[in-house]
Every structure is written in structure tokens, then in C-alpha cells.
Amino acid sequence: MSPTLLLSLLACFSSQEPPAQVPPVAETALPEVKVKGKQAKERERADGPVKGYRARRSATVTKTDTPLRDVPQSVQVVPEALVKDQGMKSMAEVIRYVPGASMNPGEGGRDQPVLRGISTTSDFFVDGLRDDALYFRDPYNAERIEILKGPSGMTFGRGGGGGVVNRVTKRPLEQPLAQAELSLGSWDDKRGSVDYSDRFGAAGFRVNAVAEDAKGFRDGFKLRRSGLNPVLEFDLGQDTLALIGVEHFEDRRTTDRGIPALSGRPLEGATATFFGDPTQSPSAAVVDALAAKVETSLAPGLLLRNAFRATRYDTLRQNIQPNSVVDPATRQLKISAYSQANLRTNLFNQTEVEVRGQVGGVEHLLLAGLELGHQDSDNTRLTGYFGASTTATVNAANPSASVTRWAPAASDTNNKVAANIAALYVQDQITLSQQWKAVLGLRYDRFSVSLDDRNAVNVDLARTDKAFSPRAGLIYQPSASASYYASTSYAFLPSSETLSLSVSNADLKPEKATNWELGGKWDLSAGFSLTAAVFRLDRADVKSKDPNDPTKLVLSGLQRTEGVEIGFQGQVTGRWQVYGGFAHLDASVVKATGGSATAAPVPAGTQVPLVPRNAATWWNKVDLAGGWALGLGLVHQSGTYASTTNTVALPAFTRADAAVYYAFGRQNRLSLNVENLFDRRYYPTAGNDYNITVGSPRRAQLSLACRF
Questions:
Q1: pTM: predicted TM-score of the whole model, two decimal places
Q2: What is the dihedral of CA 270, 275, 277, 279, to 10 degrees?
Q3: Which domains does the chain show, CATH number per domain?
């Protein structure tokens, strides 16, 4: 942290104003984004700031600025106020309080949410444009994070079987803002951030920056990351608004694959133990992005916009990790290692037209769009050797092992992949009457992938998939405070979804994800909302082992998730805000999936891992007198399995979080957040039976936020 920033933060104590007259920083209403053009309205905009914990609008599902009560699908919005109140610094922490969602550890090197039972590494978006590289994201520049649950191929194209995560980034504000925050936490965690916005005539400017340096409770763990995101906004006339921004983000940390299991449960006494060698397990991601958007009103009811995003990802994940469970007789296990490097470039452009008007007395909001994209991915993998062997056998009491050399094995990846995407989509949001509305949409995708194999075998592969993705929803609103809906949505999941092909899957058509959902959304007061949904999500035509040829796969598997989700957020009283929900999910394999020449398929009846039958969250913030406020949160998760073997169980747990806030001076705040208040031992997630994540012991974080 620079001396200048430290001095600026300390200077906020010099204010002479009495603290009792100032609300907490997170509760202060930020200036709304000014909506240009003839269609300007005095309301919260879908890409503007959310006041408090309750969002009213979203552009994630429909790609139009739409009230959430008019969206016939489950959308959970995590606003900036909640991110700041809980001190969230990762997507795993953002997902934590979202019902029906959890986080796979992603081999210790990437975000990998599990949404309605489907694990994904590539269903991330920034302002509606794909952000699918393998890395850890930081919410420092997010106005909100929107989690869509259930497939939505009509909006996002390939993938997204269980849902998607879309980050809405911060835009210049109408009024000046200068804010800085410094946090100090357990295990030498140091973090600073800056948020500055101003206007210069017809132009607006905003810059967000973050820097963090930390260790961890796990032996040898280190983390260092930083980000810088300046954005310029130009008013090019009464009806045209242009925005351009760049971002440079770096995340460097120890790749921690967790601990193994012993006799069907996580190994006891290994909370801090690193299996392998943390000094030889670095993970790094460098992300550079350029984004631009132009929006213009061509006539009353006619809006044209174009959004472009170019991103370069340079990632490395090297790790030494447990590669077996612990033998109960000998207390030994195997250790293995690999190094994976990827250089990826994404280019995406979306051109959309919105037409609002009436036909035959019925109001329509028609959206038509064209998306073009190109992706390049350069992949290299090396295997770690322990002497002459690719594995090392260690004792669980002393599991240290170091690699003597890194070299390519026969099965290691060495290729370059290119993908071209072209899609056309159309959607109609129809107001049938005062009480009835409908949403109908259809998208056509052409997704072409070619793989240049650079190994000695040199098996080049290519595949082109063409698919239609429909969506339909019917909404009934008997009053201004209640909305009920029925919907169905679809997404296709091609074999090359993550820009990878193999001999066993290059000839296979896409898997299919179909969601049927009934739900309700209620505004119980001016600032408090409740949502509920019951659904069935089928992932059909899942790849499975060909019974007639073990070297091939066929599309015959079926995974099903059925469940109920309840969410609540907003202001219960003038001083009490809440956020949380409950999910009851039953995710299982209905028809056998997976399998290969060396692995057996996953049989029918298997419970999908990392999907607890019951999960509940409840965060509360209460404002007291004199500038003080208290926060209390509970996270409960029933037991689940670590993998599809269903032989290693992660025990159920309940964890409590707490916070104390003190607002003083001119919109300044001092806060103390404590995670895992009662220091419970728990295991929230796992990569498999021998890569189990250990939940953090009690962790404290002291933060000072100042506005200037």
C-alpha cells in the first residue's frame, strides 16, 4: 500500500462533523447513473447502483432493462452494499449466501460454481459478454453480481446448463465520488481499494483499483493480487452515450488442492497441512481487457446499441497435490503433480436493436441481436516427476514431496484451439394485459472449433455445432406487489464448450439442459422482497461409456436436479436489512454418465456431489444509534458427497459470521468482520475424494472506509 493512500485514509479521522448525523457508508444512497436519450426515466437502471440489499431491475436474463418481477426465471443479485458489509473479496464469498449455489474449489486455481447441481468453469460474463478463462475473479469493480439459475441459451449461447454469473461493472456517476478503503486481517492480510468518479462537461470518468497481499491458515499459502479499471463515458448528444474502459488484473497465489480423505471422511488433524510442496505450487493469472459500448436512441421507442469486449488471459496453474485417499492400514497416500499454462484471447461483439411499441393494442418490447466472437487458446501441460516416477508415496503425518523435474508425458496437452461464434437472437416481451405478460425468445448459434495438436501423435480435430435455444415464460401479476410465473428454458453444451476436443468426443452432438420452473416474486414492503421457485432441471444426452466400444463415448446419460429455492432481500424496517435464502435440492444421476477405457461410468442413482440436500443462509444488518451498526450471518449446509463415487462424505455444518460497524465524520466507516465466529471445523467443498477444502478457522478483518 502506498504512503499516499495510507495518509489519505488516516486523514478521514480529521472531520469535525458529529458521527450521529452520518449514516453508514454502505447505506448511503449513491448517485444514480444518468440515463440519456428520449427514453430516460427517473428510476433505478439495470446497470446502475443498487440502493441497499434489494435490487429491483436486471438486464441479465432478458438483455433489456427489465424489472425483476417481470423476469420469469430465478435471478439472485448480490449488490455492492452486501459485498462491502460482509467484506467479500472473491466469487466464492459472493456465492456463499446465494440459495441453490455452491463453489467447487476448481483445482485450487479457478472459480468453479455449482449452480443447481451443474458444475461450470466457463459460464462467467462481464456486462453480458463472455469471460470464460480459468482464474479467480475479484468483485472490486462490480456494481453488482447477478446469478441466473437455470439454463438460458437464448441469452448467452453455449453452456450455462445450471446458470451463469454476470458481473455488472461500475460506470461513471452523475455526482463526484472519492472513496478509499484499507483492510487489515488475520494471517497478514492487507488490502486497499480506491473508487473515484467525476464528470468533465459531457464526459464522465471512473476508476476502481485494488491491491492485496496476504498469507493464509494453510501452510505456505500466499496471495497477491491487484486490479485497475478506468472507465470513460461520453455524452455524444441528446440521444447517444458511449463508454470505453480498460482493465489490468493480476492474481498470484499458492495452488492449494486441500486434504485427502481417510475411511470416508476428511482426514482429521490436517487443517493447516499442505500435501506436497507449496513452494512448487504457484498459480498466476494476468488479465487485460478492453471494453466499449455505444447506445443511441434512433427514434421514440427505437434503441440501438453495440457492445465490444477484447480480453487476453495469461494463466499458469502448477500444483503438487494428493492423488489418493489415505490408506487406513499404512496411513500412506500418493502425491502427483502437473503444470498447466494457457494463453487465451477472447473477442466478442454484440449488436442489438430494441423496439418498443403497440401492435393491435398489445405492448411489445422486441429485441433482435447479432453476436460475433472469436477465441484462441494455446495450451501446454507438463507432468511432475518425483525422481523416475510420476507419483510419490508419503505418510499422512509428513506429506511433503517435491518435484525433481517437469516434462511432457505422452498424454499431456500441447495444442492450439480456435473457435468462431456467430449467433442471431430475437425476443419479445409482451404485455398482454394489466395482469398478464409473456416472454418469448429464440437464438440460433453456430459454434465452430478447430484443434491443432502439437504432440508427436498430431491428431488434429474440428467440430461445428449448430443449435436453436428457445425460451418461453408466462407471468401473472394480480397486484402491484405479487408476480407469478411459469417458464421453460434451454441451453446446449457442446463437447468443445471449454475449447477442448478429444478423439472420444469430437463426433458427439451437444448435451442438452432443459429447465421447467414455477415461481413467485413478492414485494412485501417498499424495500423488502421475497422470491420462491420450484423447478426440474435435466441435463440430457450426457456423455457416457459406449457399452460396445470402451474407447468411445455415446450420448445416453441423464442428470436431474429437482428442488425448491427461496430468497429474501431488502429492508425489513428502517434500521434492519436482511439477505439470504433456502434451497432444497435433489440432484442425482438418472441414467449412467461418464466412463472411459480406464474408468467405469457413474451409475444411475448416484447423488451429484457438492449439492447439499438442504442449505440455508441468513445475513442481518441492524443500524443502532450514534453511528453504530451490527451484522450477524448464519450459513448452514447439510452433508454432501465429495465426488461421484459417493464414498467420501463432507459433514453438515453451520457457521456464524458477525460484524460491527461505526460510522463517523463525513460518510466514513470503521468495520470489524469476523468469519466463523465460533471457530467451527468444517469442509465446505471438494474437488474429489482426495482434494477436500478445509473451511477457514475464525478470521477477523478490520476495515476503514473514507469518502473525501
A1: 0.92
A2: -50
A3: 3-707 (2.40.170.20)
